[in-house]
Amino acid sequence: MEQQFPMIQVMNNDGELVMTEYCEQITKELAMTFYRHLMRTRTFDRKCVSLQRQGRIGTYAPYEGQEAAQVGSALALKDDDWLFPTYRDHGATMTFGHSLTRILLYWRGRNEGCVPPNGKKIFPPSVPIATQLPHAAGAAYAEKRKGTKNAAIVYFGDGATSEGDFHEGLNIASVFQAPVVFFNQNNQYAISVPITKQMNSQTIAQKALAYDIPGVRVDGNDVFAVYFETQKALERARNGEGPTLIEAITWRYGAHTTADDPTKYRNQDESKKRRELADPIQRLERFMKREGFWDETWAQSVQEKVGREVEQAITEMENYPEAKSDDMFDYVFAQPTWTIEQQKNEYNAWKRGSIR
Ligand SMILES: Cc1ncc(C[n+]2csc(CCOP(=O)(O)OP(=O)(O)O)c2C)c(N)n1
Ligand SMILES: [Mg+2]
C-alpha cells in the first residue's frame, strides 16, 4: 500500500526541489508568502502556550511542527470556500482569514471565539472527534445543489479515521460527489496512542479506495507539496469530480494539549530529531537560501511584524468586555429546555446572594 500511495514530496528536507512539475510556479513571491504565514502561525502558537502557562487563557492545543500542513492547505482555498477545523487547526483558520483575537477568545472559553469574521465560512473548532466530516460533506453538497463553484475543506487527525463519522462523511460525499477535501493531518498520535496501535492499515490515504475517491499522500512538512496537492483536489471538487482524501504526514513536537505530558508516552528525542531533520519552516528557509531568495533583514522584519500582530490581538482579547454569565445557558439550544432555564435561574439567584 505504501507503494500504491507514495508520499509526494516537492521539496526534500534539505530544501532541494525534487519534483519538476511545480517548478515554474514556485516563485520568490510564493516562497515569501509561505514563509510569512508559517512564521505567523508558529509565533501565535508559541505565544498561546505561554499565555496558558500564565493563566491568561485556558487549556490549549498546540500545533507546532504541523504548520506547513495547515498553512499550505489553507492558502489553496478560495475566499468563498468552507473550512471545518478541529481544536488543533487554528493555524489553518488564521491563514484563511480568521481573527487572531477571536481565536484567543475561544481559548479563553468565550463563545465569541466561535464566530468568524463577516463572510468567512469557518465553523467552530470540533472537539468531538470526526463529527465535522459529515457536516463538511453536507455543506459541500449544498454548494453543489446551489450550482456554485465553492468547495469545503475539513481537517482531522489520524485518530479520527477510526471513528464512524469519518466513514460516514467519506461515504456520503462519495455517493453525492460532494466538492469536499478531507484533509488528514497524520501526526502519528491520538493523544498517547501511536498510529501503529490504532490501525492496521499502512496508510490513511488507502482508506479512500473503499469509497472510490482519490487518496493522496503528501509530506505534510513540505509546504509546496501540501499547497499544490490541495489545490489540485480543490480543482477536482470545483469541476464536479467529487471528494479527495489527503493524508499529510507530519508530527506535533509538543503535548497533545497543555493538559497532557508527552514524556509519559514517548521519547522526547524523537521530536528533537524530527525538528532538526524535517522542520517545515527550516526546510523552506533552506530552500530560499539555495535559490538566493533569502534576506536576513527581511526575515527579521517578518518576525517583528507577526510579533506585533500577535501582541495586539492579545491586548484586544484581554480588554474584551466581560462575559455575561447568561451566555453559557442561552447558547446551548435555540429554545432553552426547562432544565437549562432552571439552572440559569438558580445560578442567577446564587449570584444575587439569595441562595447559598
Ligand atoms: C468522540 C470523541 N472521542 C474521544 C475524544 C477524546 N479525544 C480528544 S483528542 C483525541 C485524539 C484525537 O487524535 P487525532 O484524531 O489523531 O487528532 P490530533 O489530536 O492528533 O490532532 C481524543 C481521543 C473526543 N474528543 N471525542
Ligand atoms: Mg493525531
TrEMBL record:
<dbReference type="InterPro" id="IPR029061">
    <property type="entry name" value="THDP-binding"/>
</dbReference>
<protein>
    <recommendedName>
        <fullName>Pyruvate dehydrogenase E1 component subunit alpha</fullName>
        <ecNumber>1.2.4.1</ecNumber>
    </recommendedName>
</protein>
<feature type="domain" description="Dehydrogenase E1 component">
    <location>
        <begin position="39"/>
        <end position="324"/>
    </location>
</feature>
<dbReference type="GO" id="GO:0004739">
    <property type="term" value="F:pyruvate dehydrogenase (acetyl-transferring) activity"/>
</dbReference>
<dbReference type="InterPro" id="IPR017596">
    <property type="entry name" value="PdhA/BkdA"/>
</dbReference>
<dbReference type="InterPro" id="IPR001017">
    <property type="entry name" value="DH_E1"/>
</dbReference>
<keyword id="KW-0670">Pyruvate</keyword>
<keyword id="KW-0560">Oxidoreductase</keyword>
<dbReference type="Pfam" id="PF00676">
    <property type="entry name" value="E1_dh"/>
</dbReference>
<dbReference type="InterPro" id="IPR050771">
    <property type="entry name" value="Alpha-ketoacid_DH_E1_comp"/>
</dbReference>
<comment type="function">
    <text>The pyruvate dehydrogenase complex catalyzes the overall conversion of pyruvate to acetyl-CoA and CO(2). It contains multiple copies of three enzymatic components: pyruvate dehydrogenase (E1), dihydrolipoamide acetyltransferase (E2) and lipoamide dehydrogenase (E3).</text>
</comment>
<keyword id="KW-0786">Thiamine pyrophosphate</keyword>
<comment type="subunit">
    <text>Heterodimer of an alpha and a beta chain.</text>
</comment>
